Amino acid sequence: MKQLNLLIFIFLLLTFFNSQVEGSVRDPKPGPGVVTIYYSTDFSPTTYIHYSVNGGDWTTLPGKQMDPSTNKSMPLPYHQKSITGNTLTFVFDDGKGNWDHNQGGGNYVVGQPGIYSVKNHVLKTIYLYPKKCPGNPTCSNHGTCNNGNCVCKAGYYTEDCSKYCDPYTHIICDDGKTCVSGKTCPIQPLPGCQTYHDGKCSGDTIVMPPSFKARRWQTPTKGSSGHRDSFQDYSHLVGWNHVVYSSDHQSATLEVKATHKNGASLMYSFNGGSKTSSNTKQFTSSFTDALTVTVYGSDGTKLVLPEYDFMWNTHTAIQHASGDYRDGQKGAIVSLFGWPDGDIEKECEMLGQAGYLGVKLFPHQESLASIEPMNNILNPWYFYYQPVSYQQNGRHGTRAQLRQLIATCRSHNVRIYSDTVLNHMTGSGNDMQKHRNDAGSCVYWPGKNSTGGDNMSPFFTQGFTYIPNENTELPPSQEYPGVPYGPLDFHCERALNSWTDPLDLNAGWLVGLVDINTERDNVQERMADYLTDLIGLGFSGFRIDAAKHIKPDDLISIFTKFKRNMGGNIPKDFITWWEVLLGGEKDLLMCNTNSGYNFGKYIENGLDSNGFSTDDINKIKIWWSSFPNAPSPCGGVISRVRQVIENDDHDQQFGGSSRDMHGQGVILVKDRDVSGHRYFEKKLFSNPEGVSDNNNDWPIRLLLSSYYFPNNDAQLGAGIPDGKSDCSNCKVQCNTCKNVAKTSAYQPNKCGYTGPVYTRTHRDKEIVTAMRGWMGLDTGLSNSELGIPEGC
Ligand SMILES: *[C@@H]1O[C@H](CO)[C@@H](O)[C@H](O)[C@H]1NC(C)=O
Ligand SMILES: *[C@@H]1O[C@H](CO)[C@@H](O)[C@H](O)[C@H]1NC(C)=O
């Protein structure tokens, strides 16, 4: 205070001298040995800093002129000045006798090199650099100065030797900054904003380097801080059930495939029975429970596998009194986009009455979930397609709820189909670890969770990580212990840039999603077992998401193993349809059998030589993206029995919808044209574009019921009105969250297009009637006989 008054006095005497002799000497760069001050002033565009460095003389009044800040994070009115030194005492003025002093009225004082800011008379420390010698020639009295660096005496540490670490009870870690009791130093993150950048492909290699095997077993161990009950002993023990049915599907052999990190010997218990050393057990249709398998390691580790269902319990009879269902090989399947399990279960009575073949669910496996918005939306729908495991704890329900849904729907003669993601797991960086972005901004974000909630599986990717794993002490790598997949089960990291290069299509990381190495036999086995589990749960078939990004040979192998698991006898009513968007690559992907990456005749030939009958091959279909604008892109290269058609589809349910149907179809949420939409959905059944034999062409046809974008905001279309995108569940960065309020999907008194929010096109009387006509069902039934409200 006193010094300030004196300064003002002197300043007034000298005010007519413009003593500014700044010259063109450049400021030192912010860094060790430098004090950098950012000063926010509104009182004058011209600002001076008057200071004493290292306790030396003060600058000549009014001090040194400050420069406008060049730091984008500290924009104008911030000004900056960097001064070499260890300590700085300073005040600001405008060169005209107006002073900015410290809150208490005195000088500002900093005692260490670093980055500081001053705003509204408050000095804040942004970053501290260590006090290096020679500015600290005695090294805080605990060391000697050697070429600008302190060499500390025993027991002292940090770059300026200012701290003591008792050598009898503690150790100083290699970073020179940490003193810990005991003998284990904490794992050190990368310095600055750096992140790991390994695991990338070099040249045409698509596999991970074999050394990445050492990066497996990343799950926190029991008792460590990141562990959760649902992580079990995944740090040491993982596994799954491999089931092969007899050809009549009335008995099965179950083999537990478990792996222990250290090769401990294992014992097995089936449904709580006594422990046995055999990992294999026979079951017959007299076993009517859901099965629980427990694995015990000789080192005390334990693994409880998710419940397992056998198909003899779940594929209850379906008996249609009339209609051309062909044992499940013909009919209309409704995609109920964003519907929770309980709502679908209730809707199934109506769906059965109306005569639908079935419902296609959205991915029900455990998938990504977060308390932080992604592109302003909490849990956008595309999180469905980022699997965390093949456990059925999905966004819309648990395995138990799913089992219940399937049983109820089948009791109404409605089959259930899965949406199955085999190509990839979550996006790189979408996992449970801490992350940051090294692209200049150094933004940090927390790990994500899964839809599993209390049953969440751990999951790890390499993207945006900067802390070595606690167990491996190596950089993180891809691992999904709940499946289980380890680092070598993935392709090395490669951007998917080319849509014409088979290597890129197969092994590229589609929009950064970690790409599974489907060439590996153990991966193909795991996938076939997953498909077998879905059949055991009662599914009648499955859509295969992103099939175009799985090598055709690999899909042939996976389905051949699946057929083996089915006792060589694929169920009569089974169907699958693969998502292979033809786009501009129809020659490569479909028309040219010998293209080297072909999902047309090449797949048929491959299945045929692996013993698939024509009937079986006809059950394996392609989602026909050329419909409706170019229904026959390369003539009859594959039979229309193997093509699944749809008008509006779920991939268009966001603002950037790109499917151009050339006026031959309508995307309801985008075009908002109810009569046009109804027209094309009716046409899908009565007279689809390009049809020649409506009775036999395209026996499987899909209908989409979805939801409108709330408030007409297309961005909100990425959220689902199921409550999981409701901002009341947001915990991080919630100021960016755009709300998608919860609405009930099941509303028995609503029609196809009357909302609220959800669309229920499968309830539209005209569409139902067109579908029934195609299916050879009575078209003269009343609304109540069809299960839909009067007036719909
Ligand atoms: C720029 O400003 C940010 C935000 O205050 C700070 O963290 C960073 O250290 C500054 N950079 C430099 C080089 O001063
Ligand atoms: C994940 O779940 C844990 C436990 O429920 C919770 O504390 C954490 O905030 C969640 N994090 C995210 C990003 O969802």
Automatic annotation (TrEMBL):
Signal peptide residue numbers: 1-23
Cited Pfam families: Alpha-amylase, EGF_2
Checking Gene3D superfamilies in the record gives:
Glycosidases (3.20.20.80), Immunoglobulins (2.60.40.10), Laminin (2.10.25.10)
**Which SMART domains has this protein been placed in?**
Aamy (SM00642), CBM_25 (SM01066)
Give the record's keywords alphabetically.
Carbohydrate metabolism, Disulfide bond, Glycosidase, Hydrolase, Signal
Family assignment from sequence similarity: Belongs to the glycosyl hydrolase 13 family.
Question: What's the protein name?
Answer: Alpha-amylase
To which species is this protein native? Answer: Anaeramoeba flamelloides
Lineage summary: Eukaryota, Metamonada, Anaeramoebidae, Anaeramoeba
